[in-house]
Records
---
Amino acid sequence: MRRSWTTPLTENDVTPESVYLNRRTILAGMAGMGLGSIAGPALAAPEGLRPNDFEDITNYNNYYEFGTGKEDPARYAHNLTVAPWSVEINGMVDRPGTYGLEDILKGKTIEERIYRLRCVEAWSMVIPWNGFELRALLDQVGVQSGAKYVAFETALRPDEMRGVSRRVLDWPYREGLRLDEAMHPLTILATGVYGRDLPNQNGAPLRLVVPWKYGFKSIKSIVRITLQEEQPYTSWKDANHREYGFYSNVNPEVSHPRWSQASERVIGGGLRSRRDTDMFNGYGEEVASLYSGMDLSQNY
Ligand SMILES: Nc1nc2c(c(=O)[nH]1)N[C@H]1C(S)=C(S)[C@@H](COP(=O)(O)O)O[C@H]1N2
Ligand SMILES: [Mo]
């Protein structure tokens, strides 16, 4: 498996954006000089993926608990108390319980993963996440045989989330994955961006990132993870199953009923900057086998 999207980072590795970008440039240059073994192949950015500015990543967001405008999360998510934080992990696991964020981070390697985030609304940006593989946490709690799906739930705090007074969705926001999708090494729980703590608007302190699926699968500020046999309730699909499916794999050939998914607007790329959308958002080499034999126009 290609692992060029992996960069080891220590938990204390706080890098300002300018220094960070500089270092990346220098390392890329070194690799070109045949010093690749020093930088390590892991330090090369995945081909063609240039991260968006921190500004874009933290000011153009979807986090409907704080309002449906793209600028609402940056404006209002600071009201969310993110420390202390704990996650209830239950259902078909050997060690169910309420895990403090410290217990969750203990023993995990925080890596950098530069992924493209493709929203179902047909825009995308490239985000240098910091986080760890979800499977490391699932292994820690011990998934029991018979579990087939993983369900996730976002915090619901009416006092801190001004958007939940409107029933835009049936709160709390919920998402889910098939167990094999959850165990896939591309699937991470993010704790940061650009080597800094995850800003609240991006889903602090812990959010899912599943890069081959539309952005709404990447649920923010997780407080509950449940292993179960049945396909879980998922907010967007269950709000409107004609428009949003459980799988929600990025697919340029399957249109949304109200718009094409063949191309996407590139955030930060200038006024009319667009790119063709890639099957599985460009991660097909890694994930297509998860869906072999499935009709992806039916299982959208
Ligand atoms: N709890 C929660 N998680 C959420 C959302 C949301 O509204 N609430 N929006 C989703 C959508 S539609 C997208 S595109 C991504 C956006 O992530 P970002 O703001 O970090 O770029 O978060 C996803 N996770
Ligand atoms: Mo989205």
---
Amino acid sequence: MYAHHNALGVALSLRPSEPVTLVRPHAATAAARFFVERFPGRSFYAVKANPSPDLLRALWAGGIRAFDVASIAEVRLVRATLGPQAELAFMHPVKAAEAVAEAYFAHGVRTFALDSHAELAKIVAACARDGVPAGDLQLCVRLRVSSAHSKLSLASKFGVSVAEAPALLSAARQAADALGVCFHVGSQAMSPQAYADALAFVRAAIVEAGVTVDIIDVGGGFPSRYPGMEPPPLEAYFELIHRHFEALPVSYSAELWCEPGRALAADYASLLVRVEKRRGNELYINDGAYGALFDAAHVDWRFPVALVRRHLSRASEMGFAFYGPTCDDMDHMKGPFVLPADVQPGDYLEIGQLGAYGQAMRTAFNGFGASAIAEVHDAPMLSLIPGEDERAEALPPNVTPLFARRTG
Ligand SMILES: *Cc1c(COP(=O)(O)O)cnc(C)c1O
């Protein structure tokens, strides 16, 4: 891996003709440390946001010891990367029986999520030894909650309704050493109230079921910063969650867990791309919907962008749309992405906040899958992590060209 100070350093020294993923392990370690120190419970990193082994190690360096995995491949990956000390929770509510068995017997996984009686029976059967049920299962019942406060809904696919939850909680209690309730408020939750509303559902389900609950897992959904999306500080989320957790009728020793994906990974990576063609306010760049920019194309997500030139442009700014490199019309990102009006073919652009759901989505469609990786040491373009956000904003747009960047 190459190491450089920033995107400009990479652009000048490599003149890359393919997109380069710029990684910032220091930013991921800072985000990890922040959750470890400030979230009033345990943080499980949701591996699906970005399964890069380098990122897993950076989070480990910041104190993250637990991981939310959704597939047997993620189970194997985390074990192989971080060894036996990593705690794994298999939180996909619909699993193959073979995956459950391998996770339990070969990888020491004890925590499993479920949202149906059929899945409960599957887990119990897959973890039994010679017909004797396992006595050490931690089972988390996934509750369906509203995604009303979130930019990306997770409300329709998984989760048992509040009406059906009590029966499932009672059944899971019989099979579990520790019983948990989990949910996901949707990704990029823009208000802490999302968690308060969900915890009100949790309360109703627990009271109705009359069972002892040992784990409350508030899932992911913690936001990051993007153009046009300025969430409240993460501490406001933690404070409200803590207050509502403390008021729940759970066992005295009950644990509070969370599963951040985006909030731990977003700052980790940005992308260096080259403009291959300009048509008015449309830029044809060398990465796109089938690469790291899936969300920009499919849910019109806006990312911070900066023109990467040795000498800062004095042109005024304007909004651009992007086309990716494949031959598909859908490889289009409408933005607007705000850049100096004199962007030309041959220019490099940095696109920020792609550590979560960026690199992880890359395909090789149409032969455009390649992306080199370079480590950079500057601040992420935006950040919601205290300390990192100040470093990001401390970069004035017009002072030292080698360090300067514009975001929009
Ligand atoms: C995707 C997912 C997460 C992570 O969500 P973010 O919005 O990235 O924080 C956590 N838990 C589960 C079960 C998920 O499916």
